[in-house]
Amino acid sequence: KEQVDALITIPNQKLLDLEEKNLPIQDAFALADSILSQGVKGISDLIVQPGLINVDFADVKTIMQNAGTALMGIGRADGESRAEVAAEQAINSPLLDINIKGATGILLNIVGPDLTLAEVETISTKVAQEAGEGAHIIIGANPSKGDKSKTLSVTVIATGFDSPYSSDYDIGDFNFTPTPLKKASPSETPSSKPSFEKDSSSLETVTDPDAEEPLESPEDSSDDKKGDDDPWKLPTFLRRG
Questions:
Q1: Which superkingdom, per the lineage (predicted)?
Q2: Which among 67, 76, 167, 230 has most CB atoms closer than 10 A?
Q3: What pLDDT does 123 receive?
Q4: Which of 136, 135, 153 is nearest to 144 (CA)?
């Protein structure tokens, strides 16, 4: 798996799920080989045989390069409902553990005589609905005018299931509801009055404990506030001995 761009496998358990329980082991393995060879032929026909809706190697590379695990389905049918039957067989192969839901890349090749536009539309729509949104689908169509079997062949190759770039989360799963801002009530609205008009009763006086106390003048000192009869307040020449 580390050495290839895409890997397609057929589990042996699928061989046991066939309706023919008594199928010889050689025939069971031959059936698996036949399905794989049909898938390889379907891919090679895309590159080698030009079609009305042409698909080349660049398209194959786009779908299968670094794709990891790949799923392949093949459907064949004829008659009036050959488009519906072949498409159903391609996306529900009994030997392939195929479920193209979640694939990021799908290569769809439609080959058949007298191929109509309505049949191409029917097959591509069914495959797209099965894969879901986001899948990159490349369609090839070849009317194969030389074929007289009237058999319509549909080959589906789906990739991108274990791509490191795929995401398990869908943005649609998350619902974001914006929360409206709360309108401030008039009581919570800041006042637009100047600061000097505010109530002075709310102001507090803060006293700095480190501030120095103002010096007292000699006249205000309690030691000097003695009566007028203090002889030391009189000038020297007025003092009496």
A1: Bacteria
A2: 67
A3: 94
A4: 153
